[in-house]
Amino acid sequence: MSDFTLHDKNSAPEASKPLLEKSEKGFGRIPGLHAVMAEAPGLLEGYQVLHGLFQNSSFNATELTVVWQSINVEHECHYCVPAHTGIAKMMKVSDEIIDALRNETPLPDSKLEALRTFTLAMVRQRGEVGQAELDAFYAAGYGQRQVLEVILGLAQKVMSNYTNHVAQTPVDAVFEKYSWQRAQ
After folding, report:
1. Alpha-carbon distance 4 to 50, whole Å?
2. pLDDT 10s digits, 105-131
């Protein structure tokens, strides 16, 4: 078990208190990830900013979910896969897509599958994607903007997935019903 502190508005460093208030207003509670990140105010603020920027990218709710969940599953994040399952349901993403992402099975739409394939190439190859991968992504209907927005989403997910790995962040009670482990 990790010994990282799960901060609340009383225990958090002063610079994190308004950030936790923002989290509480946005989610109706302080997510465990934010409670851990509050130890380092810059990390929490950076995460919140990247989250907002990625949500306001050119991707729709389903595409956002494909990027987030592809990265979460690839990184085997015990916290983010359940959290983004619940978030995807709130965003009205279909259960068929949610399940395919969680189970690493083909998506029912070739454009979404191209987005997942490209996102995973970015993760696995640390950004060193080749022209063939770019061409396949472009052929699916995406452009240079979406290439860069995948990088934005990846930056956000590195912050959360790595924090959860190191801190062993407990899954929020509201998302426990979506617990996940990679199929063997």
Report:
1. 23
2. 999 999 999 999 999 999 999 999 999
Dump the DSSP string for 163-177. HHHHHTPPPPGGGGG
Cβ atoms of 167 and 2 closer than 8 Å? yes
Cβ pair 36, 163 in contact under 8 A: yes
Q: By three-state DSSP, how is residue 167 classified?
A: helix
Query: What is the distance of C-alpha 182 from the center of its chain?
Result: 16
Q: What are the boundaries of each domain within the chain?
A: 60-162
If DSSP codes are grouped into helix, strand and coil, which group holds residue 85? helix
Phi and psi angles of residue 126, each rounded to the nearest 5 degrees, phi first: 50, 40
60-162 is a CATH 1.20.1290.10 domain = yes
Helices (H), 28-109: 32-37, 41-55, 61-74, 80-90, 95-103
pTM for the model: 0.95
- Report d(CA 138, CA 74) in Å as an integer: 23
